[in-house]
Amino acid sequence: MPTIHEQATVTATGRLTLPRLVRQVLGVGIGDAVAFDVHDDDRVVISRVSGEHEDLAIQAFLGVLARDIRRGKRVRQLPKALIQAMQTHGGSGVDPDEEIEGDVAL
């Protein structure tokens, strides 16, 4: 018997919404990837895909960026116009625990 039992319905387009509890247990949110492993006995195991990016160029760039930030190199304050735009449009009041309405494409 599973510890948690949740159900979801497949839409006409083959989409599936992961129930909130399952998303919370997996630690996934919008844009995160999950993997489906199908076993011979028809069991399907869903797991969170590692957050590491598989593109070597992106990994190298992110490594350089992280080193620069740690060393304080080429790091400067954001332009005032950008800060103002972020303050104006930020804080939209999104609740990450709120139910997702409609289909979610995985």
Note down, in words, how this protein is organized.
- The two termini are 27 Å apart.
- The chain has helices at 20-26, 56-71, 80-89, and strands spanning 34-38, 44-48.
- The protein contains 3 helices and 2 strands, in the order αββαα.
- A two-stranded antiparallel sheet has the order 1-2.
- The longest helix has 16 residues, at 56-71.
- It is 31% helix and 9% strand.
- It is of the alpha+beta class.
- The protein is extended, with a radius of gyration of 20 Å.
Highlighted features:
106 residues, alpha+beta, two-stranded antiparallel ribbon, 3 helices, 9% strand, extended
SS content category: alpha+beta
Which parts are unreliable, with pLDDT below 50 for 5 consecutive residues or more?
none
- Please tell me what the overall shape is: extended
Q: Termini, distance in Å?
A: 27 Å
Residue share in helices?
Answer: 25-40%
Largest sheet: 2 strands, antiparallel
How many β-strands, per DSSP? Answer: 2
Spatial strand sequence of the major β-sheet: 1-2
- Tally of contiguous helical segments: 3
Please compute the radius of gyration using only Cα atoms: 20 Å
SSE order: HEEHH
On the 0 to 100 scale, the average pLDDT is 82
Beta-strand percent range: 5-15%
